[in-house]
Amino acid sequence: MSTVEAEHSDEKIIAKSVLKKKGQLTIPKEVRKMLDLKENDELDFSVEGGKIILRPVITIAKDQMWFWTKEWQEAEREVDSDIEHGRVHSFTDVDDAIKFLKSE
User: Fold this and answer.
1) Which of 57, 73, 79, 103 is the most exposed place for a label (fewest CB within 10 A)?
2) Do residues 54 and 71 touch, judged by C-beta distance below 8 A?
């Protein structure tokens, strides 16, 4: 068997695999490790310029979609900033927290 590579390619080949019966293909260990791919991960296939492009798919459960909305992520960034800049308060009990809220 011989391998022919494009003469003017700037791509670096990391590993190779052989297409098997029924279209099965093993993603080499090096590639799985680089992309942190695990069993049952989903991949998108596309063809661009005569090349097969595989992209990992990140699936979010429907009951977790709220966390990834634009509004929620903006609020998360605001909270992170408040924590980073010390704009937080700690209380030993609920009464102290209520007292603080009423003083503002």
Assistant:
1) 103
2) no
Q: What is the CATH number of domain 19-57?
A: 2.10.260
> Is-contact 34 27, C-beta < 8 A?
no
Residue type, 32: R
What count of other Cβ atoms lies within 10 Å of the Cβ of residue 62? 6
Instruction: List the beta bridge partners of residue 42.
Output: 57
Take residue 6 and report the two structure tokens written for it: 């494009």
- pLDDT for 1-37, tens place per residue? 444 444 555 678 889 999 999 999 999 999 999 999 9
Amino acid at site 44:
D
CA 102 to mean position of chain CA atoms: 42
- Domain ranges for the chain: 19-57, 62-102
Q: Is the pTM of this model over 0.85?
A: no
